[in-house]
Amino acid sequence: MTQTIAHQACCADAESHSLTVPQALAQIMTTVPVIQSTEKLALRNSLGRVLAQEITSPIQVSAYNNSSMDGYAIHSQALDKTVKTLRVIGTAWAGRPFEGVVQVDECTRIMTGAVIPEGTDTVIMQEHVEATADSMKFNTAEHQAGQNVRFAGEDLQIGQVVLQPGRVILPPDLGLLASLGIDEVRVKRRLRVAFFSSGDELRSIGEILQQGQIYDSNRYSLYGMLARLNLDIIDMGLIPDVPEQLQQALLEAADNADVLITSGGVSVGEADFIKEILQQVGEVNFWRIAMKPGHPVAFGKVKNMTFFGLPGNPVSLMVTFYQIVQPALRQMQGQLNDPTQFRVMKARCVSKLKKKKGRAEFQRGILAQDAQGEWTVQSSGSQGSHILRSMTESNCFIWLNAEQTTIEQGEWVEVQPFAGLM
Ligand code: AMP
Ligand code: MG
Predict the structure, then answer these.
(1) Dist CA 248 CA 227 (whole Å)
(2) According to the model, what pLDDT value does residue 49 have?
(3) How does pLDDT run across 170-179, given as a tens digit for each residue?
């Protein structure tokens, strides 16, 4: 009984009060499901996908003792702190080992990657010897036993874990897997993400605008943001503000997609309209998130599909996508960590930034290095949530938390570079 009351209180609360950005994120991250199905892909096709298996090394790396330099393979007993001349009895090539046993007063030429010949254990760089056609002379005191040799199993032992599930496969991973002879990997299936725009004032590009109409730009920025995430994109177009059509679009999306993202129609005044439809077909909360821009956000479920209703203003859409939706999509894809995701860094703010206490702000800024190499950030100017140009001209978000007030010139701030984020 008590629990039921507490639960109701929590949900009523979530609808009427503002949530902080971390609260909204925490609630989303604990709610969204992670994709379970997987598929096997040829190595190259796995680039950017999320690994769904643990990869262990089927071989030892290096496979054999080999040289890390071009030079001469000798026996370490020859290193008796004198100047010495050794007889060169052949060459060990990469891929073509020297056949035979090398004695203490002998050596072979050896190339990088070549098997260390039997009887030798040390490599002298060719720059450190005086060579003739069949001998080489060097100062033994300058060298150590075992130098310039890569030992078998030094990098990886058989069975050693090289990549963990949840890893986003990056270029060096392709190379690493290839170096182990692995030609196929199991990855998570792609997340299917549908989206549409709604708003009676919107027209598609290619159409002629009448007075009071604007082009639907959100579908294009959304497409761009989604295309970077290596998922299946379902563009459902422009849906007019007609209840039956919106409801039909929602149900159609729920049959075909894991996630639906809509833009527009979640602010006060419009919310009740969409709210009614969403509550008929699913469970959706309308949140006021204490963030600027972008506070009205709807989040919930229609059947098994996760739903994000983002604000219509073009900058608000992008900010809420990057701060709220993108982390959720990454988690749903099964990503544990993405090493390309560069979160935040500190920079000295060279502009005065106006801000009131109470809401987190994601202002747009231009990050640069000054003559001393110090990172500085400058405001990109007018911060209106409809001014998409402010996103195009910027290269970072300036993160200002709810408690912060106006930032004076010269103060340090946290910035999130677009590089890595976009
Ligand atoms: P709304 O969230 O529907 O109240 O819309 C807020 C503002 O964003 C209004 O000025 C809308 O015209 C604009 N807007 C909504 N959807 C889009 C869109 N898809 N493309 C460009 N602007 C939009
Ligand atoms: Mg609207």
Answers:
(1) 25
(2) 96
(3) 999 999 999 9
Fold type of domain 21-37+189-332: Molybdenum Cofactor Biosythetic Enzyme; Chain A (3.40.980)
CA of 301 to the centre of ligand 1 (A): 23
Question: Which CATH superfamily, name and number, covers 345-417?
Answer: MoeA, C-terminal, domain IV (2.40.340.10)
In this structure, whether the domain defined by 39-55+160-188 belongs to CATH 3.90.105.10 is answered with yes
pTM: 0.89
The torsion defined by the Cα of 67, 72, 73 and 79, in degrees rounded to 10, comes to -120
CB of 258 sitting under 6 A from ligand 1: no
Classify 373 in phi/psi space as left (phi over 0), alpha (psi -120 to 50) or beta.
Answer: left
Q: Does ligand 1 lie within 6 Å of residue 264's CB atom?
A: yes
CATH superfamily for 66-150 is Molybdopterin biosynthesis moea protein, domain 3. (2.170.190.11)
From 195, 198, 209, 214, the mutation candidate for ligand 1 (largest count of ligand atoms within 8 A of CB) is: 214
What is the Å distance from ligand 2's center to 266 Cα?
8
Amino acid (one-letter) located at 90: G
